[in-house]
Structures are given as C-alpha cells and as structure tokens.
Amino acid sequence: MVMLNRDKICSANWRQAAYFGHQMNRDLPLFVVAHDTAGRSAQSTVDYLATSSRKVSYHVIIDRDGIMTQMVPLDRQAWHAGVSQHPGKPWIKGLNRCSIGVALDNPGELTRATDGTYRAWFGGAWAHSEVERGHRNGRDTWHLPYTARQLTSFEKLVLALDAEYGLDSVLSHHDIAPDRKVDTSPTLDPLLRALTQQVEDKAADMPVGDRAIVATIGGLNLRRGPNINAEVIETMEWNTGVTVEPPIQRTGYVFVTTDDGQAGWAHSHYLQGI
User: Fold this and answer.
1) Rounded-to-10 torsion of CA 22, 23, 24, 26
2) Is 140 exposed, middle or buried (0-12, 13-18, 19+ CB in 10 A)?
3) Both 127 and 208 in a single domain?
4) Residue 229 belongs to a domain with what CATH number?
5) Range of the domain at 221
6) What are all long-range contacts of 251-255, with beta carbons under 8 Å and residues at least 24 apart?
7) Alpha-carbon span 267 to 84, nearest angstrom
8) How far apart are the first and last CA of the chain?
9) Per-residue pLDDT tens digits for 3-16
10) What share of the chain is helix, strand, coil (3-state, %, to 5)?
11) pLDDT digits over 112-165, tens only?
12) CA 85 to chain centre
C-alpha cells in the first residue's frame, strides 16, 4: 500500500526537481498523467531533473523495479504536460495546473534499425522479441514493455492519490497532446482506462442514511472540507463505522458522522456499504 502524508509519498525516495510551479488549481478536477521518462535509466532522469536549467519536472518517477522517487510536492505544479487539453473536457487546457505527472522509466519510442534491432535515441538497442508494437498518430510505434513491478507501483499510487484527492481520470501524455506525443506505450491504455473507471465517483451509490465502514487498513482521513487541503479532524481506523449524511457528495467525497459523533468529509472510494 502507498501511504501519503499530505503532499509527500511516505514510501518514495525524495529528491527535489530544479524547477516546479505554484499551487495546484483546486477549482478544477484533478488528473494523473502518465509519461515515459525517455531516458537511459530512472537515476539518469532524476539527476537530470534535479540539476537541469530546462523547466521540466514530474511529481514522481517509477523505476523498472517499481521504486518511486518523488521530485515535486503533490500540491504544487510540475512542468510535465506542456501544451495540453483534457480529451473529454476540452475546455480544460494547460494540465500542469491540475494534474499529477508520473513518469515510468522507459526509453520511449524506439526506431527500427537496419540490423533488425530497435534503438532508443541514446543508442540503447533491443531485439524484436523484447519490444511491443503499438499504433499512434496513424502509424506503427515500437516500445519497450513496462515491468510488472512498475505497473503495480503505478496502480497503487493512483489509488492512494484517489483516496486523498479524489481523481477525475487517469491519462497518458498522448491523450492530452495527441498531435505531438506518443507516450505512453499503447499497451498501457487498458490499465489507464481501468483505473479511470475505478476512480470514478462512487458516492452516488451511497444514499443519505446508509451505513458504511472504513475499508482501508491504512486508515481514512476525516476532513473539514471535501478536498485534500482541508484540515484533518481525525484519521479513522480500518472498520470504523460511519453514517452518510447530507450533503451527499463533492468530487468523490461524502459527508459522514462517525459512531463517536465526529462529523466531516471522507473519500467514498475507501468506504464500504454495510
């Protein structure tokens, strides 16, 4: 399980990016955008982002062993999206201000060489049996597969972010900038869509007056408002009983009263009806 402490990931290494932006815009829905690092290794990407004069950064890097390095606080803007807009909400443009950028260590799009290998921009080469074929922007593309540990860490991170922030959707760089980007590999698309389905607001299925319990072993924060920045009243332990009260929902949160009389907002994803 991935645990968050407000703007930090407890289980991740920390190294600060050289450049990142202002506070996130909490008046907009929050998204996760997945990227390829397109570098030689996770460590080389971390070193570059920590020292580069270019204004580029990600919130989190996930290496091929599934180990995470956080580089930007989760409540601040990382410069990862560039010119972008949400594919299903085209009025939301410039997603740096409302998205968490997660980069998976991967060389990015590969080029087929005359010797039958597939090469990255930095010279790394892989055999045909090691790569996977995709389709982006009307043409075939070739990519190195992500590892099972990377995908597991990515999924756990997304669910933890949803529990604290209330996510709207999980997207690829290609989704938000299709005319200029091909990452991530198309083979990641089913997981991105499944996670989007999983984090969609479930509060409508929990009517006022319903009884529920906290269904996450790590506990669930009870807050004074329906967002991550609201003050924490208490952390409800696993199996704590609550009653859902009006108003019913705000961006994934429901208003509840605990059995000991505390009232506040909790994210519905980690409540289970009883």
Assistant:
1) -140
2) exposed
3) no
4) 2.30.30.40
5) 204-273
6) 251/29, 251/166, 251/201, 251/226, 251/227, 252/162, 252/166, 252/167, 252/199, 252/201, 252/202, 252/203, 252/226, 253/166, 253/203, 253/223, 253/226, 253/227, 254/203, 254/206, 255/226
7) 28
8) 24
9) 898 799 999 999 99
10) 20, 30, 45
11) 999 999 999 999 999 999 999 988 888 899 999 999 999 999 999 999 998 887
12) 17
Domain-ending residue, one of 170, 199, 228: 199
User: Which amino acid, 185?
Assistant: S
Shared domain check, 179 and 209: no
Phi, psi angle pair for 220, to nearest 5°: -135, 130
Residue 251 DSSP label:
T
Tokens representing 271? 């409540």
Q: What would the pLDDT profile of 52-103 be if each residue is shown by its tens digit? A: 999 999 999 999 999 999 999 999 999 999 999 999 888 889 999 999 999 9
Other C-beta atoms closer than 10 Å to the C-beta of 148 total 9
> How far apart, in whole angstroms, are the C-alpha atoms of residue 252 and residue 140?
38
Cα-Cα-Cα-Cα dihedral sign, residues 53, 57, 60, 61: negative
At 73, which CATH number? 3.40.80.10
Q: Which of 199, 220, 239 is the last residue before a domain boundary? A: 199
Specify the pTM.
0.76
Quick one: pLDDT band at residue 229, thresholds 50, 70, 90? confident
**What total of structural domains would you count in the chain?**
2
User: CA-to-CA distance for 135 and 217, rounded, in angstroms?
Assistant: 40
* Residue 82 burial (C-beta neighbours within 10 Å; 0-12, 13-18, 19+): middle
CB neighbours of residue 6 within 10 Å: 12
Cα 269 to Cα 272: distance, rounded to the nearest angstrom: 8
Give yes or no for a contact between 153 and 13, defined as CB atoms under 8 angstroms apart. no
Query: Does residue 191 contact residue 155 with C-beta atoms inside 8 Å?
Result: yes
Q: Are residues 229 and 133 in the same domain?
A: no
